Peptidase metallopeptidase domain-containing protein
Amino acid sequence: MRNDIQSILTAAPLLAMLATGAGAAPLTPEEGAAELKRLAEEAREKAAAQNYEAFRATVPVVDGTGKFYVNGDTPIRNEKLLREFWEQNVRSAPPAPGGDDVPEFAVITVGGLDQIWNAATRHALSYCVSTGFGSRHTTVVSEMEAATAAWEAVADLDFIHVPAEDGQCDAQNPRVLFDVRPVNAGGQFLAAAFFPNDPRADRSLVIDPSSFQLDPNGKLTLRGILRHELGHTIGGRHEHTRPEAGTCFEDANWRGVTDYDAFSVMHYPQCNGLGDWSLALTARDMSGVACLYGAAPGFQIDTALCQPAGGGTPGVQNLGPFDVAAVELMQIGAFDVAPGSRFRVVMRGEGDAPGDPDLYVKLDGLPSFADYDCRPYNTGAEEECDFDVPQGRSQALVGVHGYSAGRFSLTVTATGP
């Protein structure tokens, strides 16, 4: 969860902003817009004047996660992705999607593909809660149960707490999908999470001590913070990334599922949001996430807000090994896929010097540096793309780029028409 709106690109300390956002009377959208727009543009212009090294020096790195943090609670997991963020969103202002009717619940995209959990994983969203919380462990367990229940009540999702893993609850634990653990971020954020396309080593929901030091009479609570962060873990972007918000714009890597919602749990009140610090799910949040994942039993999607999506069975191909030169973009092949089916390609390094090849997947078109639907962009040769094929798509084309020269093999799992 974001700490301070004064910097649109780098996280600055939170608590001064919260004193205004949670304690005093909220600004009107008009009052907030004028000041926030000035601060946002000032921060962007200042950052754009820097070279990459100067920008990097201003980006918080939290020792407990090893990640860079931009936009307050948005983690960037490696140097390659941070440099790309600077090139696309700092040195150049990110493009705002056009059109007057931009379809709220906003989902993160990579290329043109929604980054959400596939049909198998969405029913096994397992997590542990670190005993490192000490006397606060029971509180975090109960607040996580309440926050996950809010999303499970409307969407076909199953979050599963695995208490047996609480004593070994860190990013290296492969027996849970993600970990919930304490981190000392120095007040840079209250809590921060991850997106579904992040690898296991980066799937942590971390909570700063400041989340336990909130005004007991205020509307901002640990439960509300966790509802917001869990929204990220299932693919939800900040609602104020949309141009309609007028401020706090981050980048263009999102797709609207419903109409814009200034009251959304994913929209900060200080970013021209009209909700409050309770961070509760709105009707659009509920139908939006249900359209992505299917409705929970007993929940009715409001089809005036969004239209639900749609299932599948696989064949496996083992390909390689291949050698890719530095800077080369090697087109591996096209694989027929059925809408609603699961497509998965796993890349593994081969030999003593696997290098740093990058996996690219594009639906119904050749992947390129600028046009792809999945690109993990990890450091090293271990990468994976795993997603449900959207309606109207019939082929998945796979390519590999040599960020540096490398040797790799691929396993492709796909279901044809």
Observations:
- The mean pLDDT is 77.
- The chain has seven helices and 17 strands.
- Residues 29-48 form the longest helix (20 residues).
- The chain has two domains: 15-293, 315-414.
